[in-house]
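Final report, closing paragraph on structural work. Over the funding period we assembled a curated collection of sequence-structure pairs, and we close with a single example.
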Amino acid sequence: MLTGMAALRWLTPRRRSATARSVLAGEASAEAARKSAQSAQDASAPDTGADVEFPVHGDDRAAAFFDLDNTVMQGAAIFHFGRGLYKRKFFETRDLARFAWQQAYFRLAGLEDPEHMQDARDSALSIVKGHRVSELKSIGEEIYDEYMAERIWPGTRALAQAHLDAGQKVWLVTAAPVEIAQVIARRLGLTGALGTVAESIGGVYTGKLVGEPLHGPAKAEAVRALATAECLDLTRCAAYSDSHNDIPMLSLVGHPYAINPDSKLRKHARELEWRLRDYRTGRKAAKVGIPAAAGVGAVAGGTAAAIALHRRRR
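Its predicted structure, as stored:
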């Protein structure tokens, strides 16, 4: 059976089904996550002081998988990343209008139309095309300090630390670019991250994705691929998310948790008696969060913030 890039080359455009793209994206993300974790130095994790209400037992065949947006961090990582890119003049005004329209389509239509999704992906990837991977990683470090560090949920951070203290590995799983996901994981002292993989040759982005954005079923495929590579027993693993889009990932593990759940996930979790945690205030819980449009993938999620900044400066 062909896997990874070999499968991508073999399949013609018409034969690349959504399932095949999900598998490819999952495998690529798992491979990138393992390479990053193997080369990363151990980092000390901050003491949050928050109570963990359930025991996490040490088990070398168990691990924990955390969604990022609105689970570990308030808001969408790609939204904050986009703010940082705009500040560094990666965006131009004409790009902002185009990206804003594409994201508005996803939010208002509530549909993942293939043609519109492809347009959005192409637009997003055009921003980083020709830039070096090392450049984006360096910028990601700065953006984490500027916009993300203060938005980490202490309660979710404590849950992740409980797994680490029990000797288990902890992975972020997100549709955000794998490079920024790895920065966040390292800063939090986690094992590593699974994220959307943008193709690069010679350390330079080509403007293409490997597979598809790590969203929905692709997240589940990435977790499955990583579990196989790490010899994990998924029935002994835990997963955490706020979104019903992550039900495929949550359903893979023996210990699923709904964190700050949206209405659909809350209903699903209650029906299946999954554990729930909500670290938002009542006011925040009632708000509809700003979504990172499912099909955008690589870097265009910050356009709404960029437009707001642009308007304030005019």
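The first strand starts at residue 63 and ends at 67. The two ends are 56 Å apart (CA to CA). We thank the funder for supporting this effort.
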